[in-house]
Amino acid sequence: MRVADLGEMDGPMLLFGGPYSNLAALEALIAQARVRGLPPERTICTGDVVAYCAEPAECVARIRALGCHVIAGNCERQLAAGESDCGCGFDEGSACDLLSAGWYGFADARIGSADRDWMRGLPDLAVFRHAGRRHGVVHGGVTDIARFLWPVSPDDAFAQEFAAFAEIAGPVDAIIAGHCGIPFVRETPWGRWINAGVIGMPPNDGRPATRFALLDSGRAEIEELDHDHRAARAAMERAGLTQGYHAALCSGYWPSEDVLPAVLRASG
Questions:
Q1: What number is the average pLDDT over the span 60-83?
Q2: Nearest to 74, CA basis, from 141, 151, 137
């Protein structure tokens, strides 16, 4: 695995995941960083720049121009390798499996070779020190880039990930992740797990606001991100991406709840 050592970070940091080809959300996130005085060198993306929405190439170009730290997500790894799906390992016939065929093919057709080269060069993990603690960054997990760890996942799942991270990059006091789309901060016996959430899709809570995280003075806080979700939906409709995620941008509910533990489903 490729590990990026980001060194010592001084001051507040902005953490975010999953732009998901939602350019309106990415621009809103960049505006938040600017208002808060947070430069790109203190901004970390946990991957999946490209996914469900309608502007994959535009989001990659914006992220590259911004120059923030980026960890490879499963979508970056799959696109770089020329694979035919997003690599999440969804159960065959599940809503996520069926819906991913539409958006992944759309993105794959619009990402050029230079952007695939950039994706290929992204690190798998990162480490940095902040406020006296050593932090690690992953996409989903170390054991599996597309591992879904939820706020209700069992302790042993987090134990496995902290142990796997330590084996590759040394022990850490906290791990920052993304992928699952649900933001949370969980204290475990092995360290703090910070899922910064994703900015490209709401966290299945019935509202269009998405999420990012701020790390400051040893505290991790989940923040809401308002963006022009109607414009993002309209862009998906123009592109023919109308399998359900376009509606989720406004309704706040995923068309693929079957990926969630039952307790986290709107119907649960």
A1: 97
A2: 141
* CA dihedral sign, ordered 44, 46, 51, 52: negative
Structural Rg of the chain based on CA atoms = 17
Superfamily of domain 13-264: Metallo-dependent phosphatases (3.60.21.10)
Parse the chain into domains and list their residue ranges.
Answer: 13-264
Q: Tell me the C-alpha to C-alpha distance, in Å, between residue 23 and each of 19, 41, 64, 189, 258.
A: 7, 21, 13, 38, 26
Distance of CA 25 to the CA centre of its chain: 13
Alpha carbon distance 165, 175 (integer Å): 9
| 3-20: average pLDDT | 98
Question: Which two three-digit tokens encode residue 92?
Answer: 């065959």
Whether residue 95 is predicted with pLDDT greater than 60 in this model: the reply is: no
Which of 200, 194, 195 is closest to 182 using CA atoms?
195
- CA 228 to CA 230: how far, in whole Å? 5
